[in-house]
């Protein structure tokens, strides 16, 4: 009986950032259509939390790959393995769990979402290089599935990005701006794709507690998804993010009459706010709006599919999280983004909606964001049809990720 094809997934987790979870779940759900039966090793920074998040029935294992372990254990082992490969010596001695998982795989799939982008900080660029560099040093075919990359103008990015990306089997560019950045480096095997999460299945229903909470507000609601990342960017310029978002919600209520649901798209229960945890900032915004009974804060750790189900039930989505935007577009929900990178607009471009991609500085004028929400709500049916018309072509491009992965494993 043939054994399942082994696939190693790096760069994401099933818990915390539900956008990353959407990409992982999409790979596990769709790749067997291209490659037959698969076994997935998910190399994650949150092994304990992810163990309980594995999809029911999935042939998958959780492998802990925390940043310190990556830097201090797996990367040195991979460097030694690279030297051994050059000397044509066997690698049977490799036993560290991360490297062993990658060596056993037919292909390593990097689903980082965004990497090697200027402005993300020195430590994150180093982490990007280590994460993708380990399988390359081991000699395992590696595909960077749909993600935003570049620009590559700052140190160490302009040194490390070409060093790593020119050795990746295929880089899947998630938009025109990313493709331009990659072309500026030269020597990279890049293809044009849409995001993996366009292939994610929506959950069939809400958890009981969420359904009960939603019963307390009007059925015609707008979803607002604040972001800890955008909070950090906005407050670095002297702004008060919570006050600005609360003002956006109050103005939306005043100008549309719709209820508002505030929900996190990244969530780590019981932990402080951070890049992977919007729970605390969402609670602060909801508390600032607590005087309005038609503003509901959902403080639940929902799956990527359940969050997509929530977005699908909304009239309009206002978000600062990339994969919340993907859920809006995938469900033909009019979507307004208050973001920070080219990665948002290059996807909105595919739907002719780049004008709905705002910079975080738009929070300086909350009433103007609410005006846009009101305008979008008034044109909801037309915008939904516009999204629906563009969606089939985008989904076809999303499927290119999986054929690229399969081709890399077959070479």
The helicity comes to 40-55%
CATH topology of the largest domain: Rossmann fold
**Fraction in beta strands:** 15-25%
The total of beta strands comes to 16
- What value does the average pLDDT take? 96
Class of the largest domain, according to the CATH hierarchy? Alpha Beta
Please give the domain count: 2
- Radius of gyration, in Å, reads 21 Å
Structure annotation, total helices: 16
Can you describe this structure?
The chain is of the alpha/beta class. It starts with a strand and ends with a helix. The radius of gyration is 21 Å and the shape is globular. Helices cover 48% and strands 16% of the residues. The chain folds into two domains: 5-193, Rossmann fold (3-Layer(aba) Sandwich); 208-393, Glycogen Phosphorylase B (Rossmann fold). α1 packs across α16 and α10 packs across α11. β6, α5 (122-138) and β7 (142-149) form a beta-alpha-beta unit. The strands form three sheets. Strands 1, 3, 4, 5, 6, 7, 8 and 9 form an eight-stranded parallel β-sheet that branches. The chain contains 16 helices and 16 strands. The longest helix has 31 residues, at 380-410. The mean pLDDT is 96.
């Amino acid at each position: 009986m043939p054994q399942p094809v082994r696939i190693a997934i790096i760069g994401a987790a099933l818990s915390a950032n539900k956008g990353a979870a959407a990409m992982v779940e999409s790979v596990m759900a769709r790749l067997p259509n291209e490659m037959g039966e698969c076994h997935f090793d998910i190399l994650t920074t949150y092994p304990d939390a992810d163990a309980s998040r594995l999809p029911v029935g999935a042939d998958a294992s959780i492998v802990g790959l925390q940043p310190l372990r990556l830097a201090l254990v797996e990367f040195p082992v991979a460097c030694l393995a690279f030297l051994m490969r050059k000397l044509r010596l066997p690698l049977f001695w490799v036993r560290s769990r991360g490297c062993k998982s990658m060596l056993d795989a037919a292909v390593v799939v990097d689903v980082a979402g965004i990497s090697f982008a200027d402005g993300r900080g020195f430590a994150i660029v180093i982490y990007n290089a280590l994460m993708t560099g380990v399988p390359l040093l081991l000699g395992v075919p590696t595909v960077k599935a749909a993600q935003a990359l570049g620009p590559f103008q700052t140190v160490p990015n302009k040194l490390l990005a070409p060093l790593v990306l020119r050795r990746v089997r295929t880089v899947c560019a998630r938009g025109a701006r990313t493709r331009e950045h990659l072309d500026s480096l030269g020597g990279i095997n890049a293809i044009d794709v849409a995001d993996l999460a366009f292939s994610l299945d929506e959950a069939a229903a809400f958890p009981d507690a969420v359904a009960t909470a939603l019963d307390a507000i009007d059925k015609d609601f707008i979803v607002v998804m604040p972001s800890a990342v955008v909070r950090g960017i906005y407050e670095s310029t002297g702004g008060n993010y919570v006050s600005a978002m609360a003002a956006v919600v109050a103005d939306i209520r005043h100008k549309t009459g719709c209820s508002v649901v505030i929900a996190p798209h990244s969530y780590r229960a019981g932990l402080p706010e951070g890049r992977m945890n919007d729970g605390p900032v969402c609670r602060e915004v909801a508390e600032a709006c607590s005087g309005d009974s038609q503003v509901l804060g959902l403080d639940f750790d929902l799956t990527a599919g359940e969050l997509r189900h929530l977005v699908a039930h909304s009239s309009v989505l206002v978000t600062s999280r990339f994969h919340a935007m993907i859920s809006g577009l995938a469900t033909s929900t009019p979507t307004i983004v208050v973001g920070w990178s080219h990665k948002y607009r290059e996807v909105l471009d595919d739907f002719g909606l780049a004008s709905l991609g705002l910079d975080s500085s738009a929070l300086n004028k909350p009433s103007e964001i609410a005006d846009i929400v009101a305008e979008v709500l008034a044109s909801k049916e037309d915008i939904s049809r516009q999204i629906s018309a563009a969606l089939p072509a985008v989904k076809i491009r999303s499927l290119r990720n999986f054929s690229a992965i399969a081709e890399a494993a077959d070479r």
